[in-house]
Amino acid sequence: MTSQAPRYAQPQSQDPYWLNIKELPYFRALLRAVEAREYQDIPLEQPILDLGCGDGHFVTTAFETQIDTGLDPWTGPLRQAARRKSYCMAVHGQGAQLPFPDGYFASAMSNSVLEHIENLDPVLEEVVRVLKPGAKFVFCVPNHRFLANLSVSSFLDRIGLKRLAEIYRRFFNRISRHDHCDDLKTWQERLSKAGLTIEEQWDYFSPAATHVLEWGHYFGLPSLVMHFLFRRWIVVPAKWSLSLTRLITKKYYNEARRQPQGSYSFYITRKV
């Protein structure tokens, strides 16, 4: 009997920047587009688990093929993922109690999710349990530079208002819902404990791009109003109506993909 060749998720042939900018508030769209582009060079063997899949929009901008399984603890976003047909199977569940047998998945991904989970150890242990031996786990997270790269707190530091700068950093971390913004050493220890080894790691999203993200939380408020009224972030998803947004953000999408002072980190890990 001949063994079947491994199947891989096909990278998106369309422009991830446009696929994101036409549907999301510009600050979220910029970051997600940069992340979606990275997956063009990371083959993921199927079946794939997307841990913390949300509404499934991200994988539709990163991959042309359906991802096998998306898991999320929130039912509302999962219903949206099901409507988008982003996954063959959209599953309601908790990361610390994955409803899958041992060694079920050939790879796993988690895009900007792990930073929102307070107790990470049991989640990582569960990911390792459901992965086949030698399988990849790919994820990205904000790192230890995220707060240091914020523009408002950096300005307050420069003029001597360090206490106010620290209050602002705590405020922004709270509205970003971050439980973790960790450096490489912290992640190495955490992953090794779970049974994962880092094959490759790089930083991305420059301080200047982070400023766009930061101020987008304030200038993007009209998008919140539009979403409340029309259930869409972008009412007219046309290039002419988004020309100013594209003018502001496209250069940050086109910046060098590796940023030594970047606010976010990509990790390609493998089950030991």
Please provide a brief summary of the model.
The chain is of the alpha/beta class and 272 residues long.
Strand order of the largest sheet: 3-2-1-4-5-7-6
Proportion of residues in helical segments: 40-55%
Number of domains: 1
The CATH topology annotation reads as Rossmann fold
For the record, what is the CATH homologous superfamily label?
Vaccinia Virus protein VP39
Following the backbone from N to C, one meets helices and strands in this order, namely: HHEHEHEEHEHHHEHHHE
Low-pLDDT stretches are none
Strand content: 15-25%
The N- and C-terminal alpha carbons lie at a distance of 28 Å
From the 3D coordinates, which CATH architecture would you assign? 3-Layer(aba) Sandwich
The shape, in one word, is globular
The averaged pLDDT comes out at 93
Q: What's the level 1 CATH class?
A: Alpha Beta
Specify the biggest β-sheet: 7 strands, mixed
> How many individual helices?
11
Structural class label: alpha/beta
Strand runs, count: 7
Rg of Cα set: 19 Å
Could you walk me through the main structural features you see in this protein, from its secondary elements to its overall organization?
The protein is built from 11 helices and 7 strands. With 272 residues, the chain is α/β, with parallel strands linked by helices. It has a single domain, classed as Vaccinia Virus protein VP39 (Rossmann fold). Strands 3-2-1-4-5-7-6 form a 7-stranded mixed β-sheet, sandwiched between helices. Helix 2 (26-38) runs parallel beside helix 11, helix 5 packs across helix 8 (184-194) and helix 6 runs antiparallel to helix 7 (162-175). The longest helix is centred in the middle third of the chain and has 14 residues, at 162-175. The mean pLDDT is 93.
